[in-house]
Amino acid sequence: MTYVDGFVAAVPAANKEAYRKHAEEAAPLFREFGGTRLVECWGDDVPEGKVTDFRQAVKAKDGEVIVFSWIEYPSKEARNAAGEKMMSDPRMEAMGAEMPFDAKRMIYGGFAPIVEDGKSSGTGYVDGALIAVPAGNKQAYLDFSAIYSSVMKDSGASRVVDCWGDDVPDGKITDFKGAVKAEDGETVVFSWVEWPSKQARDEGWGKAMADPRMTNGKMPFDGQRMIHGGFAPIVDA
């Protein structure tokens, strides 16, 4: 994997099965267009934040659940080519006309992986995060992420991925920059941790928070604006 399209959406809880079916039907098309993996994750442990959170990011309404998802590609060129195919394929147009959520509030963007540690082996649970990082702190963030990844893997995670914002558009209603209240000179990071199960995740975080490596040094970003949550995969294709 060398490129990722990341998405966050608000979906009515009553539309969960319709959304799962919609994503499941779309997965073969994305693979046909050049994607190597599509993962859709249903909000399970998504806390409210004082400054930012996933619900604010997509202006979620009462009765809506946060979905955190991504598509993996072998390269940015493959991702761009896939986008062109999607725009001209009548099957995608038909699916777009019947989406079971408000696509106008969905946030999306293209990200270049800077850390990818481990391999997927039947994802059972996902921790997703969005972070605003000063562009000048990229190397410091890489160093921080390498330590974080090692701690997560040692605590039971199967895969840790951090992706640096590369093609993150401004939106009319919502967007990734607004989600984390990004300031001038900051880049949005799209990050996730894959776990074998929710139980492994809960136990893993207990181990991670007791690890002295997690308290060494200063975070190279504003942690108060970081968005995070736990998600249960509903499609992994």
Comma- or semicolon-separated keywords:
237 residues, alpha+beta, Alpha-Beta Plaits, 8-stranded antiparallel beta barrel, 8 strands, 34% strand
Structure description:
This protein is an alpha+beta fold. It has one domain: Alpha-Beta Plaits, CATH 3.30.70. The chain contains seven helices and eight strands; from the N terminus they run E-H-E-H-E-H-H-E-E-H-E-H-E-H-E. The radius of gyration is 17 Å and the shape is globular.
Shape: globular
**Strands in their spatial order, largest beta sheet:** 1-3-2-8-5-7-6-4
For the largest beta-sheet, the strand count, sense and barrel status come to: 8 strands, antiparallel, barrel
Q: How many alpha or pi helices? A: 7
> Uncertain regions: pLDDT < 50 for 5+ in a row?
none
Alpha-carbon Rg, integer: 17 Å
Whole-number mean pLDDT: 95
The string of secondary-structure elements, in order, is: EHEHEHHEEHEHEHE
* CATH architecture identity: 2-Layer Sandwich
Number of strands: 8
Helix content: 25-40%
Which class best fits the helix and strand makeup? alpha+beta
| Whole-number tally of structural domains | 1
How far the N terminus sits from the C terminus, by CA atoms, comes to: 14 Å
Strand content: 25-35%
What is the fold-level CATH name, i.e. the topology?
Answer: Alpha-Beta Plaits
CATH class reads Alpha Beta
Fold topology:
Elements: E1 3-12, H1 16-33, E2 37-45, H2 54-57, E3 64-73, H3 76-88, H4 90-96, E4 107-118, E5 125-134, H5 138-154, E6 159-167, H6 176-179, E7 186-195, H7 198-209, E8 227-236
Antiparallel strand pairs: 1-3, 1-4, 2-3, 2-8, 4-6, 5-7, 5-8, 6-7
